[in-house]
Amino acid sequence: MSMVKKMTWAVRTPQICLGFVLLVIGYVMFAMMNFSVFDAIKGPVELTAEMSLQEMEGQYVSYEVKYPLGTYMEETVTKKVNGVSTGTSRSRLGYIVYDENRDDFLAVECAVKQEDEMEGLVDQFWAALDGQGDVAETGIVIKGSLELLMGEDLRYYKKNLGSVLDEVPESAYVITGGKIKGEKIGQIYGISALGVVIAVLGIALLAKSSSKEISRSVAAYLAANPQFKEEELEQDFAGAVKLGSLWVGKRWTFGMLSDKSAVHDNDSIIWVYPYSERSGKNTISKMGVVFLDGSFASAILSGGRTKKAMAEYDRLGHIVTGNDVSYRNTLASGLSEFLALKYYPAKGINAAATQEPAPAPETDPEQEA
């Protein structure tokens, strides 16, 4: 495998892994909502007279409630502050409804805020049966999944319906108002939207991982330094020490640094040291690199790998390694003073001439990994 391919793969591997992880997380968030966002976007199907409840089971439907008999259940939630209960409140109501289209009964669930309207229809229904008015011509439209009533809810439904009918069916259907497949519509939109964002980030990482950034950087280096051939880079790369996504060779350092360059001449490096940065609650270990012109770059590298990298740079003889504060002070006082520490002696350069002070590295080397 060529130098460019190895460097590209070293960068791509974590990006690809993270991209797939994000895609999986996005998919799981959709799955948590039973992929109901597609039903929510499409909208409910109106439950008309000719439709069979059995065939529509599991579908997102809308149904106009005109003849509710009364409630069969109340769903409550307990409010807690610091683990201590502060009381309960009603969150949902279940009503028994006469379905005139099928001459049968079914259940609907609705929000507590709809209670006044529903109770008004209940009163109107019973008053009409007593001959004290007409039944409602229009009702309340409930939107939700059509499901089989199960468990305790079915028991409460049958018990309450039994006070009206002599024979109660063994099964019943319920329209879970405001819910699709058991999930609240607001939560479906919120969690699914978050899943989309995470999945898009994953796709972006996968797309980025296929870029030719490294090959372009190598080509740019060779164009700027025509005295070198790609074969020379390949030869030095073959003998370089691999440290994560960084390779330290005898003549060059390979791998994408923060300055967006993938090839650096080791003769241009004058100081290498470990440091760390805070990112939220996490600490990121990095290796700082200062160049002959006073510029700075970094690579994300563990403390152990940075230590090994410094050992390789020490063998070159002209590079200062470590994060002793005296190095920073020396560089701050002047570039020529810093070069006099190791660079000038190793290169056999007379350090009599002085240069203007160079700016200190962007990152304080006192921050140890």
Describe the structure concisely for a colleague.
This protein is α+β, with helices and mostly antiparallel strands and 369 residues long. 39% of the residues lie in helices and 28% in strands.
Notes on the structure:
With 369 residues, the chain is α+β, with helices and mostly antiparallel strands. It has helices spanning 3-32, 37-42, 53-56, 115-129, 151-161, 185-209, 213-224, 230-238, 303-314, 325-333, 335-339, 343-347; strands at residues 45-46, 60-65, 68-81, 84-99, 104-111, 140-148, 173-177, 179-180, 183-184, 241-243, 246-248, 252-254, 263-265, 269-279, 282-291, 296-300, 320-321. Helix 1 packs antiparallel against helix 6 (185-209). It is elongated, with a radius of gyration of 36 Å. The model is unreliable at 354-358 (pLDDT under 50).
Keyword list:
single chain, 369 residues, alpha+beta, 4-stranded antiparallel β-sheet, 12 helices, 17 strands, 28% strand
Give the biggest sheet: 7 strands, mixed
Strand content: 25-35%
Helix content percent band? 25-40%
User: Structural class of the secondary elements?
Assistant: alpha+beta
Number of helices: 12
Weakly predicted, low-confidence segments: 354-358
| Global Rg | 36 Å
Mean pLDDT: 88
Order of neighbouring strands in the sheet with most strands: 1-2-6-7-5-4-3
State the total count of DSSP E strands: 17
Assembly level: single chain
Which term fits the overall shape? elongated
Through-space gap between termini: 33 Å
Order of helices and strands: HHEHEEEEHEHEEEHHHEEEEEEEHEHHH
